[in-house]
Amino acid sequence: MSFLKETEKYIHDVIAECGYDIENVSLESSSRRDLGEFQINVCMSLAKRYGKNPREIADQIVSKFDDRFLNVNIAGPGFINVTINEKYLLDRINSSIDNFDNLIDKLEKKTIMVDYGGANAAKALHVGHMRPANIGESLKRLAETLGMKTIGDVHLGDIGRQSGMLITEIKKRKPDLCYFDLNYKGKYPKLEITEEELGEYYPAASNDAKENPERMEEVRKITALVDKEVEPYFSMWKDIVEVSKKSIKKSYDYLNCNFDLWEGELSSLKYVPDTLKVLEPYMYESEGAKVIDVKKDDDKLEVPPLIVIKNDGATIYATRDLATIYARVKLYNPDEIWYVVDARQSLYFEQVFRAAYKSHLVRDDVKLSHYWFGTMNGSDGKPFKTRDGGVASLNGLINDVKTKLISKLDKYDESEKDKIADILTVATIKFADLLPYRTTDFIFDIDKITSFEGKTGPYVLYTMVRIKSILNKANMNKYSIHSVYSETEKSIYIKLLEISKMLNKAYNEKTLSYVCEYLFDLCSLFNKFYGERSVLNETDELKKESYIGLLNIMYNVGYKLLNILAIGVPEKM
Ligand code: ARG
């Protein structure tokens, strides 16, 4: 149990011992450190409930406190201010130096599936794919840190117009392949296509189809055949998807986004018949399509019926999402499924979730949630575009950031520089992306986010590398914090004790912004400490051991939190 939680429990027990019934006590860190480090604010509400004077209650409570609190005083109408006895504080900090879990409170274990990333097969990832990947990956890691079992699934968009685009492009470029020979009688071989070809084909096809209605018609026809699983097109498409997965995976790997599952719309198809059986009693026909009513009496906005089967009998995006829910429940029995998908799909998910509950495709106690996020804007506040107004590719954006950072790293030889620049690039992008509150827009300002000062990835990594370098130079295996020698150190220890509250808040609100802010604060405190003390030149052995202890816990905590953000730390920079 974290120190603060344990202390809150202690206070709770003292209050109960005084004869008052109380549910939760919260220890709030105080902005008036001169009065006390923490404040207890329960006396006023107790006074109301028991018809007593709050100061009297406060007196009664504090008279029972043991030596874990110092400078206990009662302020104003009945605020209890306390300072933590250094002995208790340091005991906990020392036992947490190499044990992060000692600082946090695990939550009740659940199985959580996280649907994030959402890439579409055969198309390059664009900047719009960045937020769902980064936020999803980090929410997943946050949940894991707090004791959850998590399963991440990319839910690949592998059914759609892309299939027709790709196959018609292959036909155009390689018309002699057996797939296009109407008289071909043999067994169709596996389609050979490279990642490079794939990268080239989609944009070419899409440009051509835009200008050429005949081509578009052909794309539509082939897409419909693939959707109906007609050979050889269906198998060709599946071969294309496999190759495409490889290149998509490379981009996600670069961003440290690791999916446990690479399922998608295609892999959900085999669950469609069973899903429809469950849905059948709730569906009715409307203009030839099969739909489910999902509106509720208290809806403020109209929630239209969800189309499950189109009028031509084909499945659509929603059918595949419902079948995916069916499969997830059957295969993994999750307690919750989180959809980290942009805000434009909010109404859609509301419809899908309602249909799933209404038809009992999922039990009521399985929590389906859509965690949407703000849009990525350029420095002008408008949705991010390339200079010529197009949709920017994710790789292009990554390269821009990397180039900018490399120009700032001049101390290293080329091979090292590249490795460091990669780690730094990921840190820059992720920190910037995860810093705003989840539902606020994210402004991509390349100068600001690559700066080594301010709330940026480079600033945090620079601080981490600085700590590591002092630890390496000091090369001490023996470290323990013997005493608190300055106010800055005190602030650092108190900050460390607050980590559990911060993580729980981040988890409850599903935002990484608190983790980023916390890391920034911790780094700033460290840099303040660094300006005040020369650790390596310290001649007092006890002080030096304490400082090394402080550096170790700072580094370890920083490392763990950066790991939640899926940011690695370079050895030097
Ligand atoms: N591929 C989809 C898109 O580009 C996102 C998938 C989100 N996940 C889901 N289960 N629908 O919009």
Write the layout of secondary structure elements.
Layout: H1 3-17, E1 27-29, E2 38-40, H2 43-50, H3 54-62, E3 69-75, E4 79-84, H4 86-96, E5 111-115, H5 130-145, E6 149-153, H6 161-173, H7 195-211, H8 213-227, H9 233-254, H10 265-268, H11 272-279, E7 283-286, E8 289-292, E9 306-309, H12 317-332, E10 336-339, H13 346-358, E11 367-370, E12 376-378, H14 394-406, H15 414-434, E13 442-444, H16 446-449, H17 457-474, H18 487-497, H19 499-509, H20 513-532, H21 541-564
Parallel strand pairs: 5-6, 5-10, 10-11, 12-13
Antiparallel strand pairs: 1-2, 2-4, 3-4, 7-8, 8-9
Helix pairs in contact: 2-3, 6-7, 6-8, 7-8, 8-9, 11-12, 12-13, 14-15, 17-20, 17-21, 18-20, 19-20, 20-21
Arginine binds next to loops.
Can you characterise this structure?
- This protein is an alpha/beta fold and 573 residues long.
- 50% of the residues lie in helices and 10% in strands.
- It contains 21 helices and 13 strands.
- The chain has helices at 3-17, 43-50, 54-62, 86-96, 130-145, 161-173, 195-211, 213-227, 233-254, 265-268, 272-279, 317-332, 346-358, 394-406, 414-434, 446-449, 457-474, 487-497, 499-509, 513-532, 541-564, and strands at 27-29, 38-40, 69-75, 79-84, 111-115, 149-153, 283-286, 289-292, 306-309, 336-339, 367-370, 376-378, 442-444.
- Strands 1-2-4-3 form a four-stranded antiparallel sheet. It has a four-stranded parallel sheet with strand order 6-5-10-11, sandwiched between helices.
- Strand 5 (111-115), helix 5 and strand 6 form a beta-alpha-beta unit.
- The longest helix is centred in the C-terminal third of the chain and has 24 residues, at 541-564.
- The two termini are 36 Å apart.
- The mean pLDDT is 94.
